[in-house]
Structures are given as structure tokens and as C-alpha cells.
């Protein structure tokens, strides 16, 4: 029964210890809370720095890729220009060769000799030669109206004179 009479109360310095412990606990709790908030703020700042770094790197990457694409386009057009210039020089060389060949065959005697030896052609004789007049006024003009109105007498006079 002694336990029933005993009351729960603290006397003397025990009360002060309890208050000091409560204050220390409050300080520790506030310190822990401050550390948590400080940690959260640091994490947010780190995340912001990381995001800024990622944004900067992505912008740098895009600029670098754009420059590389432009250089590749320039390189391909330069390659096409070089190919076209080489084709032009080849065509000029072929043209010069053809001009030289034409100059070689410009001489009639060489053409005559080549025709006789390679192609078996013969010199034309007087009996085989024919002369044609190919001047502009060589062909007769036909007037259909005048032929219908002519008589037999006009036709005979026309043939005679």
C-alpha cells in the first residue's frame, strides 16, 4: 500500500533538469530541422546548378551539331565543284584532241589518200562525173491559175520561145 500513497512529483533540482532537458531537446530538434532545411536548400541549389549545366551543355551540343552539319554541307558542295571542274577539264582535253584531229584531216590530199587506202575508193572518171546546178533559182515555180487558162496555142508558143 505504500505505492498507493506515493505521488508522482519531482522536488528540487529534478525539476530544473527536466526543463533543461526539454530545452536541449527543443534546441536539438530545431537544429535537426535547420539541418534538414539547409540540406534541402543545398540539394535545390545543386539541382539548379545541374540543370543550368545541362542546359548549357545542350545549347553547346546543338551549336556544335549545327556547325558540323554546315561544314558537311560545305564539304559536299566543294566536292561536287571539284568533280565538275575535273569533268570540264576532261571535256576541254577531248575538245582539243578533236580540234587537232580536224586539223590533221583538213588537208585534202590526206583525206584523198586515206579514202583510197582504207576505204577502197577510186578516182572518178569523166564518164562517171555529173554536174548539177544547185543555185537558189534552180527550181521552177508552179502557178496553178495560169495553167488553167492557157490554151493549146499558148502552150506551143511557150515551148518554142
Automatic annotation (TrEMBL):
Superkingdom in the source lineage: Bacteria
Membrane-spanning segments: 53-73
Record key words, sorted: Membrane, Transmembrane, Transmembrane helix
Protein name according to UniProt: Cell division protein FtsL
Native source organism of the sequence: Hathewaya proteolytica DSM 3090
